[in-house]
Amino acid sequence: MRRDPGISQADSSPELFDGQAAFFDRRTGLPEGCCRAVAQKVVEFGRGRGLVVEVGCGTGQIGRWIVGRGRYVGFDYSLNMLREFRRRSGAPLIRADANATWPFADGAASVIFSSRAMHLLERGHVAAEIFRLASPDDGATVILGRVERTPGSVKERMAREMNERLRQRGLQARRGERRNRKLFEACEQMGAERLEPIHAAAWKTAASPRQSLDSWRSLKGLGGLPVSEETRAAVLDELEAWALETFGGLDERFEFEETYVLSPLRVPPIRKN
After folding, report:
1. Which residue has better confidence, 177 or 52?
2. Domain limits for position 263
3. Is residue 1 part of a domain?
4. Span 80-109, average pLDDT
5. pLDDT at position 258 over 60
6. What is the CATH number of the domain that holds 43?
């Protein structure tokens, strides 16, 4: 297979996000102003020196705005997502599995950033890699980004109901905020210090119940989990019936606010023997 220029490839099989690459930004994209604001905050944490590593850089929604403002390398397991990133930026990118050893030397990073991806990874492994990459002279800042929605918004209610349908079937959705909190707790036990969250950007948007259903129907799994076609179809059929009753239809758009929140964590410098 011919390699894309600028993308290093690890020996690994394709994974689920490959199939989402072409429409990922349409499904989960952020406003450009938000991406620029988040990138600026990430660069500020690095104080313009040291390496910024983005874990699960995806299509480069945010990473492309970090490039050129400091030293940056992004890595992701999905080759197709990296190809989308490569189309819009000349960023140095690596194909690698974040649940394996990260492709960086000990002490290489001053900032470790991840947007809406770290909760999909194994917590103990991630904590160990964070401390391994932290600079022995200055330590490192870990920054996790997530989107918060107005409580009771149509997207929030649809997601909550979907997670409940999975729970009824003995499946626990990978809820980002809870899993990120557990990761930070593990890092704090190793000596890290949690910093105050930062609201980097906020914007108004609107969505319909059908948009959530169509988005989930385009995926192979649900709630960040691999599920059978039978389970996925049954959950989505139940959700559609619930949405029709709850909202009186599937196509009315409801306005709400979204906020991009950065949760930073300071890892102290640790001298390696």
Report:
1. 52
2. 7-149+174-201+258-267
3. no
4. 93
5. yes
6. 3.40.50.150
pLDDT, tens digit, 9 for 90 and up, residues 26-54? 545 688 999 999 999 999 988 767 899 99
Q: Tell me if 241 is assigned to some domain.
A: no
How many folded domains does the chain comprise?
A: 1
Residue 226 domain-assigned (yes or no): no
* DSSP code string of the chain: -PPPTTEEE-S----GGGGGGGGHHHHH---HHHHHHHHHHHHHHHTT-SEEEEET-TT-TTHHHHTTSSEEEEEES-HHHHHHHHHH----EEE--TTS--SS-TT-EEEEEEES-GGGS-HHHHHHHHHHHBBTTTBEEEEEEEEEE-TT-HHHHHHHHHHHHHHHTT-----HHHHHHHHHHHHHHTT-EE---EEEEEEEEEE-HHHHHHHHHTSSEETTEE--HHHHHHHHHHHHHHHHHHHSSS---EEEEEEEEEEEEEEPP----
Whole-structure pTM value: 0.84
Does the residue 143 lie in any domain?
yes
